[in-house]
Structure to design on (132 residues):
C-alpha cells in the first residue's frame, strides 16, 4: 500500500491529488488493473469531478455548505457534525481503472481530496491491484 500525505490549509478545501495518484501508478509499472484510493478519516472524503474549471469545486464546496451548515444544532459534542455528514455524502473510497499503465479518467476528471474539518494533516491510502 502507498500513501499520500496532505496538509490542508482551510476548514473546507478540495485538493487535486490526481498527479500524485498517477505517479504511484506509473512507478508500479502495472499496465492493467485497478487503483483503489481510500480516505481513512471521518471528516474528509474523496471525489472525482471536473478539474479544468476551478469554479466547479468552488460551487460544490459552497453548495455543501448550504446543504449542511456548520453549527446547525447537531448532537455530536465535538461540534463538527457537518464535516462528518459531508464526508459521508461524498464517500471514503474511489476505484479507478488502470488501462495501458494510465488511470482511465475522463478528459475533464480529476481526483480530489475533500477536507471538511481542516486545517489538518491527512494521509490517503492507495492500493493497486493488477498485472505488469
Ligand atoms: Zn467529530
Amino acid at each position: 500500500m502507498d500513501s499520500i500525505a496532505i496538509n490542508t490549509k482551510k476548514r473546507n478545501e478540495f485538493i487535486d491529488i490526481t498527479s500524485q495518484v498517477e505517479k504511484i501508478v506509473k512507478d508500479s509499472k502495472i499496465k492493467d488493473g485497478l487503483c483503489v484510493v481510500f480516505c481513512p478519516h471521518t471528516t474528509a472524503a474523496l471525489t472525482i469531478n471536473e478539474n479544468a474549471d476551478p469554479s466547479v469545486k468552488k460551487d460544490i464546496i459552497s453548495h455543501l455548505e448550504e446543504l449542511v451548515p456548520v453549527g446547525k444544532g447537531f448532537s455530536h459534542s465535538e461540534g463538527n457534525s457537518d464535516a462528518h455528514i459531508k464526508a459521508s455524502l461524498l464517500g471514503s473510497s474511489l476505484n479507478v481503472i488502470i488501462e495501458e499503465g494510465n488511470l482511465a479518467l475522463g478528459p475533464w476528471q480529476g481526483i480530489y481530496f475533500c477536507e471538511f474539518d481542516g486545517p489538518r494533516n491527512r494521509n490517503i491510502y492507495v492500493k493497486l491491484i493488477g498485472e505488469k
